[in-house]
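Example complex used in Figure S2.
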Amino acid sequence: MNNKTALAKTKMLKPQTKKSFTTYIMVTVVFVIMMILSSTGNVSSQIDGLLVPLCVYSILAVSLNLTVGILGELSLGQAGFMCVGAYASALFSIATKETILVEWVRFPLAILVGGIFAAIFGILIGIPVLRLNGDYLAIVTLAFGEIIKNVFAALYVGIDSKGLHIALNQADMNLEADGTEIIRGALGVKGVPNDSSFVVGFILLLITLIISYNYINSRTGRAVKAIRDNSIATESVGLNITKYKLITFALTAFLAGIAGALYSHNYSTLQASKFDYNLSILILVFVVLGGIGNIRGSVIAAIILTLIPELLRSINSYRMLIYSIVLIVMMILTSNEKARTFIVTNFGKLKGMVLKIFKRKDTAEKEVK
Amino acid sequence: MALLEVKNLGISFGGLRAVDEFNVSIEKGELYGLIGPNGAGKTTVFNMLTGVYKPSKGVITLDGENITGKSTRDINRAGIARTFQNIRLFKEMSVLDNVKVGLHNHYKYSTAEGVFRLPRFFSTEKEMDKKAMELLHVFELDDKADFLASNLPYGDQRKLEIARALATEPKLLLLDEPAAGMNPNETVELMNTIRFVRDNFDMTVLLIEHDMTLVSGICEKLSVLNFGQLLCQGKTSDVLNNPEVITAYLGE
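Predicted assembly (621 residues):
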């Protein structure tokens, strides 16, 4: 009995607000350090080019964690929603390039358009798909992701004096002489304005984190977690399961759409082939290795696992070897109880030392992981 | 008029008639027991009352409202809350949050208000915390409000399930073997809790139980099920002395 209560105490929950603010501060500190480094010219062009993708992948991982970790359903369609967001926002930007000249008005609107379109797709796909669960849901979302990618890869959109032309091959478009092609099938979209920057990426990541944490710790988030833990009991206390599943799925899609907008405005060309299932799996890897349901972990895993393969480009032949070893080590560290206790106790000691310097007493910390 | 009226309730699974011609009428404020040997169909009756199974025939009326065949969610909103034979808590959530999920339909703010932390979020959450803590206090769980539900001792988990059911503000509370796995002391404590709930929450309770101390201690009326059929019904003392019940269930 004594043992039991002691165990219960160590598992006592930490106030959620504290957890979220630590994450905000962590992300901000990294951002400020990177900004200082890059303004003083201490960042190589290779890392500089990675800053926006890092934000993109972090946002994707955090948003997927809402579905996988909080709702407890496996979704493999993340790249598809990102694709919708990327295309919708790119089209918006190209269409309004002449009318809205101010970049900081146009880009936020484009991001919002990307997010909203992705959310609409999320709801449309979610209505039939969320009747399934487990492996079946994973398979169907994977298929939908591929369908979205392939539709965009086959899509031709052009504009001329007569208006918008949409077709499934170039000849069918019948553009007038003054027309311009916007989406050219597998070649994708050209001339997307380069509005993305690390600052925008950081702001979006912070917004994503705030939305996610607030969502999890609200009435809706509580309902979603209840569904994850026990759907029969959730129904028995009078909750609408489908509604909360759908809201979460739509929010995940919305945030993925935002990430897509950030992504598409980082490069001047946009191709649908980038949004294949490998990307969905990659994001799922971030979520799983960062810890299912652990928002901060998603960000850390996304950053580490994006940086490693890029930083190892100089030793190209061993690159994937090292990457896979890192994956395996992370897997062991996150799943093995012994390895975890080892880290937690030693991390606790280290933390204690740091905290002593700041003359703060915080002993509860090391027990919580 | 009785709070719960069940008439000719029956259900078949394939060719098997699990429950047949089940009738019961429970007055407001009653403590009613449903007993019978294993496999008699007691939990099946509960599942029909709460909409988990759709009855093949019969009518269920709660407080004058026909709730036959409605979904679990709508039946809960109509006023029936339940606990489960094998405890179904939200294990990865705190004790407090478990109760707050129960309060979900009575304290409302929109998703957007929650995400953007608008004033109604703070005021409603505060009210919810207060109400949930009051409920937990009744079950002496308030000092464990921050624990994960799965870390509670067994008896407390049973109590938490009752607290969560009460949070939905039901008219009728269904308890499926509340004393299962409890030691005699815990059972006595549970009996007091159930009585307390009935008296202080104005609750009507229908419970399934095998523990005869609990049944004879608190139930005012009993129904005995055997092989899906009603064997006997009436006042507890009469039922427990009925020779048919003694042969079928209690033993000589």
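Chain B touches chain A through 46 residues (CB under 8 Å). Residues 1-79+170-252 of chain B form a domain with the Rossmann fold fold (CATH 3.40.50.300).
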